[in-house]
Write a structure and sequence with these properties.
The two termini are 20 Å apart. With 80 residues, the protein is an alpha+beta fold.
Length: 80
């Protein structure tokens, strides 16, 4: 993606050129989508594999942070 436009219509059609940095949040906001409605989590941590998740959960527990209570989910990327 290099050019992203947001097209909206109230009384008239409005076309807005979005920067690549703002596009994701602007589009999700426009559609009324939040991360929690897509993944059922408020925050996501992308990790390489299962062992990375285990280590981060243990580290958080050592810091007295319960990731489950804070609605944090993990996405395993499988080496990507």
């Amino acid at each position: 993606m290099q050019t992203i436009y947001l097209v909206a219509k109230d009384r008239s059609t409005k076309v807005e050129l979005l920067s690549l940095g703002d596009a994701e949040s602007v589009i999700m906001n426009e559609l009324g989508i939040r991360l929690s409605s897509l993944f059922m989590y408020v925050r996501l941590i992308f990790v390489e594999g299962a062992s990375d998740e285990v280590i981060l959960r243990e580290w958080a527990a050592t810091c007295r942070i319960n990731l489950s209570q804070r609605n944090v989910g993990f996405i395993r990327m499988g080496g990507v």
